Amino acid sequence: MKKAKLYSAMFLIMSASFSQSIVGTWKTIDDETGKVRSVVEIYEKEGKYFGKILKLYREEGEDPDPICDKCDDYRKDKKIIGMEIISDMKYNKKDKEYHKGEIMDPENGNIYDCKLWIGEDGTLKVRGYLLFFYRTQTWLPFIGE
Q: Could you please report the per-residue DSSP string of 122-140?
């Protein structure tokens, strides 16, 4: 009985410590339609966090393997699947947020300052900034299909 309580306590502590990590795969949701648009993998590399598109969900008539023809940087005319869209995010322990990086919208090629954090419900909050204006999206954990 004591071992079961000990294991339960260890599991809860481990779950709480991992619950603040953005590392993993996430479903992006279209703001207007509420439909899943892509799956993004967020990973850590040398103390910074990055995200790349693993999969796109396309509507009938849309190119299933599009390129970023609106990008103005090194991603110009590159395939969107596999593209890094989140870069150089740093974790701030005090605020429990990831910030000081960028996010790129491959549909329009715009690059925004970015802040990420885990919501109380376990979703990923993704905020893109342009000067004083911002938009926040909610991404859902991707479990698989």
A: SPEEEEEEETTEEEEEEEE
